[in-house]
TrEMBL record, chain A:
The keyword Cytoplasm applies. This is Urease accessory protein UreD. Transmembrane segments: none annotated. It is found in: Cytoplasm. Required for maturation of urease via the functional incorporation of the urease nickel metallocenter. Coiled coil: none annotated. GO terms for cellular component: cytoplasm. One of its GO terms (molecular function) is nickel cation binding. It comes from the Bacteria. Keywords: Chaperone, Cytoplasm, Nickel insertion. Belongs to the UreD family. The lineage of its organism: Bacteria, Bacillati, Actinomycetota, Actinomycetes, Micromonosporales. It comes from Actinoplanes cyaneus. It holds the Pfam family UreD. Signal peptide: none annotated. The gene is ureD.
From TrEMBL, chain B:
It is found in: Cytoplasm. Keywords: Chaperone, Cytoplasm, Nickel insertion. UreD, UreF and UreG form a complex that acts as a GTP-hydrolysis-dependent molecular chaperone, activating the urease apoprotein by helping to assemble the nickel containing metallocenter of UreC. The UreE protein probably delivers the nickel. Belongs to the UreF family. It comes from the Bacteria. GO terms for molecular function: nickel cation binding. It comes from Actinoplanes cyaneus. This is Urease accessory protein UreF. The gene is ureF. GO terms for cellular component: cytoplasm.
TrEMBL record, chain C:
Pfam families: cobW (PF02492). It is found in: Cytoplasm. GTP binds at residues 51-58. Homodimer. UreD, UreF and UreG form a complex that acts as a GTP-hydrolysis-dependent molecular chaperone, activating the urease apoprotein by helping to assemble the nickel containing metallocenter of UreC. The UreE protein probably delivers the nickel. Residues 47-216 form the CobW/HypB/UreG nucleotide-binding domain. One of its GO terms (biological process) is urea catabolic process. Keywords: Chaperone, Cytoplasm, GTP-binding, Nickel insertion, Nucleotide-binding. GO terms for molecular function: GTP binding; GTPase activity; nickel cation binding. This is Urease accessory protein UreG. Residues 1-44 are annotated as: Disordered. Belongs to the SIMIBI class G3E GTPase family. UreG subfamily. Facilitates the functional incorporation of the urease nickel metallocenter. This process requires GTP hydrolysis, probably effectuated by UreG.
Length: 254, 214, 247
């Protein structure tokens, strides 16, 4: 399956934000949600089909213009599944945030079901003065099953320089992934990257979590846990401050 | 190239500050995740797939073109979210430069570069190739924490060296992969991260009692 | 190479350009050669203080800081196996402000850090001189080790080895590189000699036999809180250095 989705937000010139583009294809369907009167716009990804499955090629483009505020959430966890024998499924997200723009990406977790082969490529470019909060949670396998193969390949650039570059590979093909250097047997891991004015308080954020000031203007919070609830407990506080922020410990499909 | 020169660069006795760093092992020992040679095996395999691959690629890239050192240094900053690990890498880079400058005419690449960048610059000055540099980097990335494990846990040194011997082919493979990619643009170079090493390093840096600098 | 990162200037290579609004970076002074003199002028006299566990090295360093701290520009590097314990002792005792003390981690091997791989100690000494300006004296205190632990000549100019009488009056006779070759041997805790049955004259005789013309002093910090004979020896070295004569 191939699908493309695109959302573009710009300032309405009156302190608000309007969407100039909002289109998608199953399984990448986008819906505007949230109150009309707020300064920012909230958009939900609504899964139009199970997946991604092997062979899927999905693309999501996000554009936030000067002064616009956009928050993207999803209604349910993404479940990467094996499907038929085929090359790895791939979700490529390309996002740009202009000066004075704000993008918050707060989707439900990705679940790498046993046998899946999925790659998530994230390329975010933030202009100087733009603001970013980018959350990614991963659950390695559904309850009681092994993890499938999954690679997260993330690049965040800010003000023309690379701020954060990270790859994480889990699953049977990834050597040592569940060993004590990488996840130490944890089944869930989450990260929050901020860039620009968005910030968090650095330091330990629980026994298996930390908030780290990056070398450039941004921060990373990382948490691992036996299940996603531990990760949420550590990371949700950094994603609050918005009416749609998740409640800590909220149940998840996994 | 000179094999003896390569061995010199990869020797754990090179006075380059490495003995005081456990490459994240001390934090994982304290967390109870590494207690045995088998646990160390898992730790080192994870290290090879992540930090060793990144270090080897960046060291090989620096060796291949010393003019890239500044960009490579920034690339390692972007791949090292933990401030404690950035400090540890730069402290080891500085120490390695100190040793290297006494041995070869090393290019001016700044006072405190990341360790892989310093290693690449030393290797270039010593006349080594990017492929050889990658082997030295990958080898150092696992022999360092293996030595720390012997000291921290009192593991049988023969069992630990037997493990290192078993890992040698994988170490070679990682080095080869790293060298092959070392000409890529900095953003495309390996970026495999290890969340627990980042988290562990931040916790470790706050301990009042610790034996290793990182 | 990225288009955003200009080629480093060949004579002034820098890791990268720093924008005015950028968060401070973790790499200080890019482009500075580690072997370039950081403060200009002659560097401080570096004295290593080593000896077995419990022989009173840290107490001696504290006493020297109190005695010499008023007259000399002084800093201390500690090498405790437990990161900051010795540094904390000096801080708690208020003998030196925090910025004049650096603790070096030794990876379970205090003798490695002072003898075989001295890089972390050299970095610490240089950082102290860079941050505090010119110094007269840097004391490098070893972690407690054994009778073979001595300092590298690449790290220090002169070394003091501290033993105490409670280890028994055989220690000087046993020798070892610390006792035999240190520039000054300090036999400490002499006030305990009657309690532990140590014969100071035996220790003195054996030390002379082992050390030939190298000096040995007896010390009881309980009775001489200023560590007078050691402080005098150091003052002599600093004066000789200032006068340009070899210490």
């Amino acid at each position: 399956m191939r699908a493309e989705a695109r959302v573009a937000a710009e300032s309405d010139g009156r302190g608000g934000t309007r969407l100039t583009t909002l289109r998608g294809q199953s399984p990448l369907l986008l819906r505007r949600t949230g109150p009309r009167a707020s300064a920012g716009v909230t958009v939900h990804l609504v899964g139009g089909a199970a997946g991604p499955l092997r062979g899927d090629e999905l693309r999501l483009e996000i554009e936030v213009g000067p002064g616009a505020r956009l928050e993207l959430l999803s209604v349910a966890a993404q479940l990467a599944l094996p499907g038929r024998p085929a090359p790895a499924s791939r979700l490529t997200i390309t996002a740009t945030v202009a000066a004075g723009g704000t993008l918050r990406w707060l989707p439900e977790p990705l679940i790498a079901a046993a046998g899946c082969d999925h790659v998530a490529i994230t390329r975010v470019t933030v202009e100087t003065g733009g603001s970013l909060l980018w959350r990614d949670d991963l659950v390695c396998g559904r309850h009681g099953e092994d993890s499938g193969d999954f690679v997260a390949d993330t690049l965040v650039r800010y003000g023309g320089s690379t701020l954060y570059r990270h790859e994480l590979a889990v699953g049977p093909r990834a050597a040592g992934w569940s060993g004590p250097a990488i996840l130490g047997g944890a089944r869930a891991v989450g990260t929050v990257v901020t860039a620009g004015p968005e910030s968090m308080v650095p330091g330990a954020a629980g026994p298996d979590a930390a908030v780290m000031p990056l070398a450039g203007p941004g921060m990373l919070a990382t948490a691992t846990g036996a299940d996603i609830r531990h990760v949420r407990a550590a990371l949700d506080p950094f994603c609050a401050g918005h009416p749609t922020a998740r409640r800590p410990g909220a149940p998840v499909a996994a | 190239m000179s094999l003896a020169t390569l061995l010199l660069l990869a020797d754990g006795r090179l006075p380059s500050g490495g003995h005081a760093h456990s490459s994240g092992l001390e934090a994982q020992v304290s967390a109870g995740r590494v207690r045995s040679v088998e646990d160390l095996d898992g730790f080192l395999r994870g290290k090879l797939a992540t930090g060793a691959l990144v270090s080897a690629a960046f060291a090989a890239a620096a060796c291949g073109d010393v003019a890239r050192c500044a960009d490579l240094d920034a690339g390692l900053d972007a791949r090292t979210p933990s401030p404690a690990l950035r400090r540890a890498s730069r402290a080891q880079g500085r120490a390695l430069l100190r040793a290297g400058r006494a041995m070869w005419p090393v290019a001016a690449i700044g006072r405190e570069p990341h360790q892989p960048v310093a290693l690449g610059a030393l290797a270039a000055a010593a006349g080594l190739s990017p492929a050889e540099t990658a082997v030295a980097a990958a080898h150092g990335a696992i022999t360092g924490p293996a030595g720390a494990a012997v000291r921290l846990l009192g593991l049988d040194p023969y069992a630990v060296h037997a493990l290192l011997a078993r890992l040698a082919p994988e170490c070679d493979r990682i080095a080869e992969l790293a060298a092959k990619r070392s000409g890529d643009p900095v953003d495309d170079l390996p970026a495999a991260g290890a969340p627990l090493l980042d988290i562990g390093a931040e916790h470790h840096a706050t301990w009042e009692v610790r034996l290793f600098a990182s | 190479m990225h288009p955003e990162h200009p080629e480093p200037h060949p004579e002034h290579p820098e890791p990268h350009e720093h924008g005015p609004d950028e968060v401070p970076h973790t790499h200080p002074d890019p482009g500075v050669d580690p072997h370039a003199p950081l403060t200009g002028g002659p560097r401080a006299l570096r004295i290593g203080i080593g000896g077995p566990v419990g022989s009173g090295k840290t107490a001696l360093v504290a006493a020297l800081c109190r005695t010499l701290g008023e007259q000399l520009r002084l800093a201390v590097v500690t090498n405790d196996i437990y990161t900051t314990e010795d540094a904390d002792f000096l801080l708690r005792n208020g003998v030196l402000p925090a910025e004049r003390i650096r603790a070096v981690e030794t990876g379970c091997c205090p003798h490695t850090a002072i003898r075989d791989d001295i890089s972390a100690n050299l970095d610490a000494v240089e950082d102290l001189e860079a941050s505090l300006g010119p110094l007269d004296l840097v004391l490098v205190e070893s972690g407690g080790d054994n009778l073979t632990a001595t300092f590298s000549k690449g790290l220090i100019d002169q070394q003091i080895f501290v033993v105490d009488v409670s280890g028994g009056d055989k220690v000087p006779r046993k020798g070892g590189p610390g006792v035999t070759t240190a520039d000054l041997l300090v036999i400490n805790k002499t006030d305990l000699a009657p309690l532990v049955g140590a014969d100071l004259s035996v220790m003195d005789r054996d030390a002379r036999a082992r050390r030939h013309e190298l000096p040995t002093v007896f010390l009881s910090l309980a009775e001489d809180k200023a560590a007078t004979p050691v402080a005098e020896w150091i003052r002599g070295l600093v004066a000789a250095r200032a006068a340009g004569t070899p210490g």
